[in-house]
């Protein structure tokens, strides 16, 4: 006769590993698909590392705006490294297995860097608001110590919001054989739907995280740019207005590149379950892979100072 402990151990099951699909329905052409993915990952890592080196080596860029840009570049490096190993392992080598605990770790860091990026974009909008509304006090308001505190608050916020997510997954009971993920990385909505248990708490908590981070951040960014636009329109000449708006152009583009795929992905996961799995997967890839690759391009094209500093890094020259 089995003991009650034995019954409990049989009734509760967690897979030793998950099987990652990659892109559902396109497994036969993963080799070709790996080419644009490899290019985007290379561009993301190279571009963001160049920005970090450019800001560090150029004293004229030791200003609040560029410190926040460094935070964004560092976050994009982390977001890229969160998904790159498993994605390229699936596309290049058809290595599809990821251990259960490794999956939880990847899931935490993937969502952690997403929340951090949202917070950094909000901090950058505050930076632009201060620079335009009170340019004479800009450097005295956003001192190095204030920027450090903002950075620490961003990391603490993301950690506190997402600390519970792996444990909420770990408490779930999974059915044997139901361990196939529809991505090449561990994504919380995807992982929790592999469970054979009530996932309503996971859904509610996931929605809370989305609303309390990306939702609030996007609203505050819109509010900050509403005030910025009012101040810009009050400037005396059209030339001053254009110059003020040009200082915000890169940030506005970065906000669109990050939040539009993010909102699309959230809507699809909550209301588009009838859509093919490939749609969910491709939108997730656009959200996680494209912004880190595009942000360095956006800032190097729109900012002459960053572009020149990046070229100096490539040429191996420092500016004193």
UniProtKB/TrEMBL annotation:
SUPFAM superfamilies per the record? Answer: Family A G protein-coupled receptor-like
Keywords, comma-separated and alphabetical: Cell membrane, G-protein coupled receptor, Membrane, Olfaction, Receptor, Sensory transduction, Transducer, Transmembrane, Transmembrane helix
Q: For the G-protein coupled receptors family 1 profile domain, which residue ranges apply?
A: 47-299
Where is it mostly found?
membrane
Its BP terms in the Gene Ontology are: cellular response to lipid
GO terms for cellular component? plasma membrane
**InterPro entries named among the record's database cross-references:** GPCR_Rhodpsn (IPR000276), GPCR_Rhodpsn_7TM (IPR017452), Olfact_rcpt (IPR000725), OR51/52/56-like (IPR050402)
A GO MF annotation of the entry reads: G protein-coupled receptor activity
Q: Is this entry keyworded Membrane?
A: yes
Q: Where in the cell is it found?
A: Cell membrane; Membrane
Topology relative to the lipid bilayer, per the entry, is:
Multi-pass membrane protein
Query: What Pfam families does the annotation carry?
Result: 7tm_4
Q: Which residues cross the membrane?
A: 7-26, 32-55, 67-93, 105-126, 146-169, 207-228, 249-271, 277-301
Could you confirm whether the keyword Transmembrane appears in this record? yes
- Function (record text): Putative odorant or sperm cell receptor.
**Similarity-based family:** Belongs to the G-protein coupled receptor 1 family.
Full protein name: Olfactory receptor
Give the organism, scientific name: Muntiacus reevesi
């Amino acid at each position: 006769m089995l003991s009650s402990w034995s019954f409990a151990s049989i009734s509760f099951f967690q897979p030793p590993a998950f099987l990652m699909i990659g892109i559902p329905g396109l497994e036969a052409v993963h080799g070709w698909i790996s080419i644009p993915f490899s290019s985007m990952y290379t561009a993301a890592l190279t571009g963001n590392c160049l920005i970090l080196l450019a800001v560090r080596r150029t004293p004229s860029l030791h200003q609040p705006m560029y410190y926040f840009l460094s935070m964004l570049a560092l976050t994009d490096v982390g977001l890229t490294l969160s998904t790159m190993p498993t994605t390229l392992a699936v596309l290049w080598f058809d290595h599809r297995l990821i251990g259960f605990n490794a999956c939880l770790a990847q899931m935490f860091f993937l969502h952690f860097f997403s929340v951090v990026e949202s917070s950094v974009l909000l901090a950058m909008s505050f930076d632009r608001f201060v620079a335009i509304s009170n340019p004479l006090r800009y450097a005295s308001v956003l001192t190095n110590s204030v920027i450090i505190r903002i950075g620490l608050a961003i990391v603490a916020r993301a950690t506190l919001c997402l600390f519970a997510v792996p444990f909420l997954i770990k408490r779930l009971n999974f059915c044997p054989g139901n361990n196939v993920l529809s991505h090449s990385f561990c994504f919380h909505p995807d992982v929790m739907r592999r469970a054979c248990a009530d996932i309503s708490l996971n859904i509610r908590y996931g929605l809370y995280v989305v609303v309390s981070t990306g939702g609030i951040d996007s609203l505050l960014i819109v509010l900050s740019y509403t005030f910025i636009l009012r101040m810009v329109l009050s400037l005396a000449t059209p030339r001053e207005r254009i110059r003020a708006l040009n200082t915000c152009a890169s940030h506005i583009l970065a906000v669109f590149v990050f939040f539009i795929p993010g909102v699309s992905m959230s809507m699809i996961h909550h209301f588009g379950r009838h859509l093919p799995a490939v749609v969910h997967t491709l939108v997730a890839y656009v959200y996680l892979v494209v912004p880190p690759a595009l942000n360095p391009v956006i800032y190097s094209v729109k900012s002459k100072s960053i572009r020149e500093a990046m070229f100096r890094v490539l040429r191996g020259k420092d500016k004193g």
